[in-house]
Amino acid sequence: MGKKVINSAAVLMSSALIFSSSAAVEAPFEIGTWGNFCKGAISHTFDDYPTSSTDQQVSSGQAAFDEKGFHMTLFVLPSSCNDDNWNSLKAAFAKGHEIASHNNQHNSNADGLKPSQNAIKSKVPGEMCVSIAYPNCQTPGNAQVLQTYIAGRNCTPNVNPKTPQNFAQIDSKMFGTCSGCPNDVNGLNSFADEAANKNGWGVYCHHGIGSDGHSWAVTNLNAMKEHLNYLDRNRDKIWCETFGNVARYIKERDAASLTVESSEPNQIKVKLTDNLPDSIYNYPLSIRCPLPEWWTATSRVTQDGIEVEDTIINVNSQDYLMFKAVPDGGDILIESGTRVRNLKLASATGKTVLLNKSGLSINAGQFSGSTIAVS
Ligand SMILES: [Zn+2]
Question: In this predicted model, what pLDDT tens digit does every residue of 122-144 receive, in sequence order?
Fold first, then answer.
């Protein structure tokens, strides 16, 4: 009798393990731990705008990020913003930066949580304001925060694990002119390297930047520019995104379910879902599968009929098709490539062009278009 009970328990346990570890994402597909299958994630966050001499956050600081196409998070104080400030924030949001809450006023009162979010949502249309940084590093209460926000930032200088235990307590490290804080390119780069080495998420906390006069911490603008160059050279290793988007990504990645609906020689249909509210969790996950060997390198991926970002990457001598898709964003269709040759140069020479492996030859002198597709 005792033996029988143990056996049933063992069966129950093993089926639970199968469901928790392998049911969510159907092979050979994989979802990246981080965007672009990077080794680690980082977020650059800036506090206190528009108070305490922080204007450079939205001028020279933002320009440095815009130049490389990286996104910053601005934790702002809505009750201190005038019309000019809101216009600057709207312009920053339009470039992909996150406008998030530093509470309504610079304190840890729970009654500022919702009003600060509402103010940002109404003044910066489209911004869902999903995250908050605690003024003076003091939380208004974890449970209260998570009723309104998906993530809150504290000031403990650790790299966060790939799935933080408590989203109301996301650790961050201070940079700039504060005592003991790194403020050179090596210090900025090494925290990103640490995130990559730990497969984790490193959150930078800045206050002023460049010529800002903030009394607590001002990050050196030239060091930041060099650091952004470093990130630009390491896009396959370090994923730099806003605090809110990385939090979205983690929760979507952990909740995602991917199934192959149909698989034909030149077309695969995939369904990607999660159980999260779609109005907030709308950030694309990075997904990959080995490229079927008879496919060309110009495959096309669409979600709900719209072409999504995709690329071919080579990992350990295997070609993978990597693409981005939003959970609950509609069916994903992966189609084998159509071979495309750009004939612009060839037609300029007036010579005959032979398309590789197709057996079709074209007299480019009589060809008026610039491209031709052969499947
Ligand atoms: Zn502050």
Answer: 999 999 999 999 999 999 999 99
CA nearest to 176, candidates 69, 75, 44, 43: 44
Tell me the CATH architecture of domain 39-249: Alpha-Beta Barrel (3.20)
Q: Are 203 and 170 in contact (CB under 8 A)?
A: yes
Q: Is 168 in contact with 144 (CB distance < 8 Å)?
A: no
pLDDT digit string (tens) for 340-361? 434 444 444 444 444 444 444 4
**Cα 53 to ligand 1 centroid, rounded to whole Å:** 12
Tell me, which fold does domain 256-337 have in CATH?
Immunoglobulin-like (2.60.40)
* Residue 231 CA, ligand 1 centroid: distance in Å: 26
List the chain domain ranges.
Answer: 39-249, 256-337, 339-374
For 267, the enclosing helix (H) or strand (E) is strand 267-273
Query: What Å distances lie between residue 301 and 142, 155, 165, 257, 289, CA to CA?
Result: 40, 41, 34, 18, 12
Residue 336 pLDDT class (50, 70, 90 cuts) = confident
What's the pLDDT at 295?
A: 76
Whether 310 contacts 324, CB under 8 Å: yes
Cα 52 to ligand 1 centroid, rounded to whole Å: 9
CA distance 36 to 52: 36
- The CA 19 to ligand 1 mean position distance, Å, reads 44
The rounded distance, in Å, linking the Cα atoms of 336 and 359 is: 20
- Tell me, in angstroms, the distance from the centre of ligand 1 to residue 46's CA: 9
Which amino acid type is present at position 330? G
Is the CB of residue 256 less than 8 Å from the CB of residue 272? yes
Residue 342's contacts (CB-CB under 8 Å, 6 or more residues apart) are 370, 371
Predicted local confidence at residue 235, as pLDDT: 97
Ligand 1 centre distance from Cα of residue 275 (Å)? 34
